[in-house]
Amino acid sequence: MENKDYLEDIENNDTEHMDAGGEKGDVTDLQTGGSKTEQEKESEEEYERFCFLCHRPESQTGKLITLGQGISICPECMQRTMDTIQNGNIDFSKLQGINMINLSDLQNMMPRQQKVKKKKPKEEKAAEPVFDIRKIPAPHKIKGQLDEYVIGQDYAKKVISVAVYNHYKRVATGTQDDIEIEKSNILMIGPTGSGKTYLVKTLARLLDVPLAIADATSLTEAGYIGDDIESVISKLLAAADNDVEKAERGIVFIDEIDKIAKKKDTHHRDVSGESVQQGLLKLLEGAEVEVPVGASSKNAMVPLTTVNTRNILFICGGAFPDLENVIKERLNKKSSMGFQADLKDKYDNDPNLLSKVTLEDLRSFGMIPEFLGRLPVICTLDRLTKDMLVRILKEPKNAILKQYQKLLALDEVQLEFDDGALEAIAEKALERDTGARALRAIIEEFMLDIMYEIPKDDNIGRVTITREYIEHRGGPLIAMRGVLKLESQEAAAQG
User: Fold this and answer.
1) What's the rounded Cα separation, in Å, for the pair 119 and 191?
2) Spatial CA neighbour of 362 closest among 349, 346, 375
3) Based on C-alpha coordinates, what's the Rg of the chain?
4) pLDDT tens-digit profile, the chain (495 residues)
5) Residues 118, 48: contact at Cβ < 8 Å?
6) Checking CA distances to 298, which of 148, 183, 228, 236 falls within 20 to 30 Å?
7) Which residues contact 227 (CB under 8 A, 6 or more apart)?
């Protein structure tokens, strides 16, 4: 009872201190020694306060007790502290030479760079316009926008467009009737460099929703060195500027998902394989999880907040390098002997063998059935061909060639590539077998000398990259600005 009376006295003194200081606008900032402006106070009111000891937000603990210097403690921690002092049998009269605690030192220990916005009350939510279903782009419009940035992969773009459209219809309707629509999480399977990550990045930018890209290789079971499962949601929260409501409508892309398959060797504990799949189940299904704000571990001295993953769209992607052998083994079971029998090497040169994947193949690869059951939409991406690589170089809105042309245009120099040069670059990229990633590396290699030499000479007006230059059999064609001026005058005279 005495401790509870003590807590009430602290709250009353805090209130009297506020009244003695005058109106709210006259409150003095103890840290800076000056009075806070209205704008600073409004920005502070948007974010939640956290208990210095347990790091829980004020929305969960109730009204916090302010000790000054920006340090607040929840009533539960204060009560526990007073009980410890009362029952600790400490004779404070025998403690000599101990100074009082300096609250400013404690304040410097508490990380304050990360804040969480307060959730708006229900009255304000009702006044806001509800997420309008009619504003969600139709699947053909989503695919049409993706076509402007991503070359090929028509089947994957169609599958993703429909899944995203259905998911955000589900988010918009909520639970308006008795029929509850389940989530449409996506599993993307494709060789490296086929555009899995780029497809998701483009999708999130077009829909204007927060996107978090996480790497499954860094995730480990709780209690082991590595990122916790909840760190995936922490990245999404950071991408949403620590706005919980905005993060709950975002997209999470978990890359390298094939790296958490069950290990064949069972002699040691698998802390980054099957156990990680088990930990991701609750996130994929939809659950309220406590996540650290601005850190990958709950053990860090950072605040915790609760995020509901029910309306978060999860897209998992992986190259699954040995999956083709699993598919071949399943398909070759049908082979037999005789003149009209299927040969065992029938599928060795099939470029789109991954499109024949089934759930049975993924289970044989090492993915557990519970995990696959929460990824109902499975789409495969085709291996890039020479023609697709040439189109990737020049057709998208932010094509690689357009980027270099813009760089040289800032120096008032025209950059051109002839068709033979584009084919030579695509052929070299196919030899590296790393997909579209090889294109940038190859062009960077050949553009190095050009980007270095051009700023030296102000008379250069145009550079043309030829096949001979790519194959080290010649140099680029360089035209001076005087020549370009004559060409433009001749063209004007003929026109």
Assistant:
1) 42
2) 375
3) 31
4) 445 555 555 455 554 444 444 444 444 443 444 455 666 555 556 777 888 888 888 888 888 888 877 788 888 888 888 877 777 666 656 655 555 556 555 555 545 445 666 666 544 444 443 445 557 788 999 999 899 888 888 999 999 999 888 888 888 776 556 677 788 899 999 988 888 989 998 888 888 888 888 888 888 877 777 788 888 898 899 888 888 888 888 899 999 999 888 877 656 667 778 888 888 998 998 888 888 887 666 665 677 888 999 889 999 999 898 888 888 888 877 655 555 555 556 666 666 788 888 999 999 998 999 999 999 999 999 888 999 999 999 999 889 999 999 999 998 899 999 999 999 999 999 998 888 889 999 999 999 999 898 888 888 889 999 999 999 898 899 988 888 888 888 888 886
5) yes
6) 183
7) 218, 219, 220, 296, 297
Name the token pair of 87: 């029952």
Alpha carbon of 473 to those of 9, 390, 423, 447, 477: distances in Å? Answer: 88, 21, 15, 16, 13
- The beta-carbon contacts of 217-220 under 8 Å, at least 24 apart in sequence, are 217/256, 217/259, 217/260, 217/272, 219/260, 219/272, 219/276, 219/279, 220/271, 220/272, 220/276
Distance CA 398, CA 295 (A): 33
Task: Round to whole Å and give the CA distance between 396 and 383.
Answer: 18
Best CA proximity match to 293, nearest among 235, 219, 220: 235
Instruction: Tell me which residue of 435, 439, 381 sits closest to 193, measured CA to CA.
Output: 435
Q: What is the 3-state secondary structure (H, E, C) of 251-298?
A: EEEEECHHHHCCCCCCCCCCCCCHHHHHHHHHHHHCCEEEEECCCCCC
pTM passes above 0.70: no
CA contacts within 13 A on the Cβ side of 424: 17
Quick one: DSSP state of residue 178?
A: S
Element (DSSP H or E) covering residue 160 = helix 154-173
User: Of 86, 62, 84, which is closest to residue 74 (Cα–Cα)?
Assistant: 62
Do residues 282 and 314 make contact, with C-beta atoms less than 8 angstroms apart? no
Task: For residues 467 and 100, give the distance between their C-alpha atoms in angstroms, rounded to a whole number.
Answer: 78
Alpha-carbon distance values, 228 to 223, 389, 396 (Å): 8, 38, 37
In this structure, how many other beta carbons lie within 10 angstroms of the beta carbon of residue 313? 26
Question: Which three-class secondary structure state does DSSP give residue 444?
Answer: helix
